């Protein structure tokens, strides 16, 4: 509160009262992670689609990896929600009685449809690989690989042509689905008219663009990390292309984020006075300092330099993981500032509350760390089944 | 690829489509089983909840409910200036006292300073936001000083709580003072 | 105060004593549910309403010019529903506007313990000060019902917005959506809870608990289809009447008499 009071008399008068039921931040860490995780999923899927649908050949080395990466995160996308719900055992009510007018009710169906699509796209893309592994293994793995190749070892031209058609169809369908999945998550917030920080048609757009940004940087970061750790060569052309896409999406993302604040500022409705006292109040550090100044501007210029100037491979490989990690943090901060920030101002328009996450408990920091670590573990396990890289496939034809 | 494959080129797709249809059917069946019976009777909600809402117990009743038994107070309370004050705000909810026509508990009776506190909820002069037209305001030490009583007097020593002016008006009548308070 | 039949009381106490003593076996009183019916009807015509939904159009009117901020309504509300500490179905705010047009609002414990202290440390002399009771607005277009993902919160055909606590998943979306912050997650049930305008009382012909106990009659409840009801008369007379946050478009059925522009 004290931060907001520096802004003179008007704000002082507006900064003194919080509705008694508004002192609680109901959507805490878990709801910060939920759009973060679905965003990474949507973004990673877009990376693979850039190759599969838009024919960006340079991205071929990471096209399979990004799908498995997306799946690993998608598996955990519901965890934060279940941890957050007051009655997780009733979570299936979302499927049972989805309210057609609720922005949230669609999540169950959209999520499941997307999960089904993603799993099948992976299975069809990996089918030749799975069949190869099926033929060359014994025991339980043999049964597993047989199952994953739909018990069909037919890899004739006719079959591959059919698979290719299905892959194209799924990848094509996957793009709008990924956009819906995450644009929709943005709409969950953007459709809340009671909250001046959330209620803007730009919200789904910002969420979607930041999703692409977080997905691409997640892929770049983990690709370089995994290749380095396993001592395999890194495809620098692929990294350079990914960085270009990252920069492009990040320009759009950052511009829209700033545009939202700027248009609120320029229109200066009574909403702005509420937002002003929030952005320069309890949200000043996480929004202006961390999200905008450190984790947006620095990667923005770094990316621009890497994309415009022809640096040596060594430099690119040094900058890429740093930039992508910074952008991953930027997106997490953005989720925090939207989700938590929106709840720090009371509907009284006269005051803010502060929020410090608890360590233990269902929605504490520890649980958040577990939820964020789970996709990494799942990715590791999936890597045991689905080889990430093309070169590791058994050459059997 | 080897030509020994005995599967048809599209058998995996057919299996998959069958599996998806079966899964969809199972999902639909499960939905029918677990859907609450009265869902959608009147709108997109469980219609039986209306009955559940009606069955929320009534814990607070009216002053008349109290007066059904507490008759002497009824007369005093109803004729006094406090007749719009609810019994249950000072004494506690009816539901803690009587349930299904049976006495289930004793409501606490406020005494001494607690009574002063209760009176000040409404009559405290320092709270300026109160409309003066409807309620008499008292500044506490001043009022006691002005009336010439000890400062540690509690309100109920002069004012009968159920009709604050009862004793005072009686005294005035006895003393032959005409002006009303 | 409400006008109540006077005849029925004769020898009531003696009668109940006999009942309690068991001298009247199988007494009617023991069969009647929670003694609700032996209170005279407070909302005319309610006891004739046998259908699932009443044919009434209810409105709640709060008279800011009358409220003395005693917090009786808050006490009654907490007693009626055992509202968990720190959460409020209804509360009473104190507004202080100084002569520099600064607005100061406070609401210690939701007004549950009344206002015992004057607000201190204000920079300028007070121009105007008043109390504003808050409760569910029973919107005609409720945002909470719109956003509830599972249909746990709903609007009845006679206008009540209620929460089915056997369906609520506790996602808090309705709390985010409510422009008036009247909802909370009950720590006891982990489901959303809010003021219901005492649906269970109203359907039995009783007034909402807070209306019943208000000593200065600042809270009024009634049927707008009944031209003789007090709320009808108030809303059809030239008072300063407004609703909270009209630009939200929720069309509240909670109206305020004497609402100032500073109130949100």
From TrEMBL, chain A:
It comes from Desulforhopalus singaporensis. It is a multi-pass membrane protein. The keyword Transmembrane applies. The chain crosses the membrane at residues 24-53, 65-86, 106-126, 166-190, 202-225, 245-267, 287-308, 315-336, 364-382. InterPro entries: Electron_transfer_protein, NrfD-like. It is found in: Cell membrane. Coiled coil: none annotated. PANTHER family: PROTEIN NRFD. This is Ni/Fe-hydrogenase 2 integral membrane subunit HybB. Belongs to the NrfD family. GO terms for cellular component: plasma membrane. Keywords: Cell membrane, Membrane, Transmembrane, Transmembrane helix. Its main location: membrane. It comes from the Bacteria. The lineage of its organism: Bacteria, Pseudomonadati, Thermodesulfobacteriota, Desulfobulbia, Desulfobulbales.
From TrEMBL, chain B:
It comes from the Bacteria. The chain crosses the membrane at residues 12-30. Keywords: Membrane, Transmembrane, Transmembrane helix. The lineage of its organism: Bacteria, Pseudomonadati, Thermodesulfobacteriota, Desulfobulbia, Desulfobulbales. This is Uncharacterized protein.
TrEMBL record, chain C:
Residues 127-158, 159-188 form the 4Fe-4S ferredoxin-type domain. One of its GO terms (molecular function) is 4 iron, 4 sulfur cluster binding. Keywords: 4Fe-4S, Iron, Iron-sulfur, Metal-binding. SUPFAM superfamilies: 4Fe-4S ferredoxins (SSF54862). It holds the Pfam family Fer4_11. Gene3D superfamilies: 3.30.70.20. InterPro entries: 4Fe4S_Fe-S-bd, 4Fe4S_Fe_S_CS, ET_IronSulfur_Cluster-Binding. It comes from the Bacteria. This is Tetrathionate reductase beta subunit.
């Amino acid at each position: 509160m004290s931060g907001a009071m520096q802004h003179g008399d008007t704000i002082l008068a507006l900064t003194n009262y919080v509705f008694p039921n508004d002192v609680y931040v109901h959507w805490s860490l878990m709801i910060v992670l939920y759009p973060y995780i679905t965003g990474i999923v949507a973004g990673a899927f877009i990376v693979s689609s850039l190759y599969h649908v838009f024919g960006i050949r340079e991205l071929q080395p990471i096209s399979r990896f990004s799908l498995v990466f997306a799946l690993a995160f998608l598996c955990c996308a519901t965890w934060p929600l279940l941890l957050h719900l007051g009655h997780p055992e009733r979570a299936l009510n979302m499927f049972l009685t989805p309210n057609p007018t609720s922005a949230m009710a669609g999540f169950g169906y959209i999520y499941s449809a997307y999960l089904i699509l993603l799993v099948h796209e992976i299975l069809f893309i990996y089918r030749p690989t799975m069949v190869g592994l099926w033929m060359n293994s014994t025991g339980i793995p043999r049964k597993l690989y047989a199952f994953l190749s739909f018990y069909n070892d037919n890899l004739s031209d006719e079959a591959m042509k059919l698979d290719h058609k299905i892959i194209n169809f799924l990848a094509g369908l996957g793009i709008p689905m990924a956009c819906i999945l995450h644009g929709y998550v943005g709409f969950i917030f953007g459709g809340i008219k009671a909250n001046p920080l959330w209620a803007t048609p730009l919200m789904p757009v910002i969420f979607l663009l930041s999703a692409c940004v977080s997905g691409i940087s997640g892929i770049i970061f983990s690709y370089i990390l995994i290749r380095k750790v396993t001592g395999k060569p890194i495809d620098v052309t692929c990294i350079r292309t990914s960085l270009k896409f990252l920069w492009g999406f990040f320009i759009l993302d950052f511009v829209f984020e700033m545009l939202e604040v700027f248009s609120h500022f320029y229109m200066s409705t009574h909403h702005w006075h509420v937002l002003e006292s929030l952005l320069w109040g309890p949200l000043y550090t996480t929004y202006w300092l961390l999200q905008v100044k450190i984790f947006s501007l620095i990667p923005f210029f770094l990316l621009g330099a890497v994309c415009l100037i022809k640096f040596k491979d060594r430099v690119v490989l040094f900058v890429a993981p740093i930039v992508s990690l910074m952008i991953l943090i930027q997106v997490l901060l953005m989720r925090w500032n939207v989700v938590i920030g929106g709840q720090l101002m009371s509907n009284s328009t006269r005051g803010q509350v502060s929020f410090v996450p608890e360590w233990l408990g269902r929605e504490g920091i520890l649980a958040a760390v577990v939820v964020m670590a789970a996709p990494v573990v799942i990715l590791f396990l999936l890597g045991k089944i689905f080889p990430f890289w093309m070169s590791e496939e058994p050459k059997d034809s | 690829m080897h030509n020994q494959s005995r599967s048809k080129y599209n058998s995996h797709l057919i299996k998959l489509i069958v599996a998806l249809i079966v899964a969809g059917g199972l999902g639909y069946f499960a939905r029918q089983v677990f859907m609450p019976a009265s869902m959608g009777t009147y709108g997109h909600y469980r219609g039986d909840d209306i009955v559940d809402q009606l069955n929320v117990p009534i814990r607070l009743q009216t002053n008349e409910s109290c007066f059904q038994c507490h008759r002497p107070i009824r007369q005093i309370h109803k004729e006094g200036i406090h007749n719009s004050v609810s019994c249950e705000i000072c004494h506690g909810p009816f539901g803690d006292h009587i349930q299904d026509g049976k006495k289930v508990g004793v409501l606490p009776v406020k005494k001494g300073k607690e009574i002063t506190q209760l009176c000040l909820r409404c009559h405290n002069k320092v709270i300026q936001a109160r409309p003066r037209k409807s309620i008499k305001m008292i500044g506490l030490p001043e009022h006691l000083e002005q009336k010439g009583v000890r400062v540690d007097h509690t309100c109920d020593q002069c004012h009968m709580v159920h009709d604050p002016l009862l004793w005072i008006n009686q005294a005035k009548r006895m003393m032959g003072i005409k002006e009303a308070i | 105060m409400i006008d109540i039949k006077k005849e029925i009381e004769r020898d009531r106490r003696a009668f109940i004593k006999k009942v309690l003593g068991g001298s009247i076996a199988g007494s009617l009183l023991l069969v009647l549910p929670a003694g609700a019916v032996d209170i005279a009807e407070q909302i005319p015509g309610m006891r004739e309403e046998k259908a699932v939904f009443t044919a009434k159009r209810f409105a709640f009117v709060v008279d800011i010019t009358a409220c003395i901020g005693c917090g009786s309504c808050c006490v009654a509300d907490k007693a009626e529903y055992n509202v968990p500490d720190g959460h409020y179905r209804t509360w009473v705010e104190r507004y202080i506007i100084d002569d520099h047009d600064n607005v100061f609002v406070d609401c210690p414990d939701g007004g549950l313990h009344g206002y015992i202290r004057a607000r201190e440390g204000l920079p300028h002399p007070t121009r105007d000060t008043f109390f504003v009771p808050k409760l569910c607005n029973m919107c005609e277009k409720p945002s909470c019902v719109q956003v509830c993902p599972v249909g746990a919160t709903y609007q009845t055909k006679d206008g009540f917005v209620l929460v089915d606590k056997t369906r609520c998943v506790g996602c808090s979306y309705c709390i985010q959506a409510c422009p008036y912050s009247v909802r909370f997650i009950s720590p006891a049930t982990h489901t959303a809870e809010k003021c219901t305008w005492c649906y269970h009382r109203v359907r039995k012909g009783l007034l909402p608990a807070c209306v019943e106990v208000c000593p200065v009659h600042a809270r009024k409840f009634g049927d707008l289809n009944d031209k003789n009801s007090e709320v009808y008369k108030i809303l059809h007379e030239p008072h300063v009447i407004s609703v909270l946050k009209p630009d939200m478009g929720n069309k509240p059925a909670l109206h305020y008499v004497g609402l100032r522009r500073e109130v949100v």
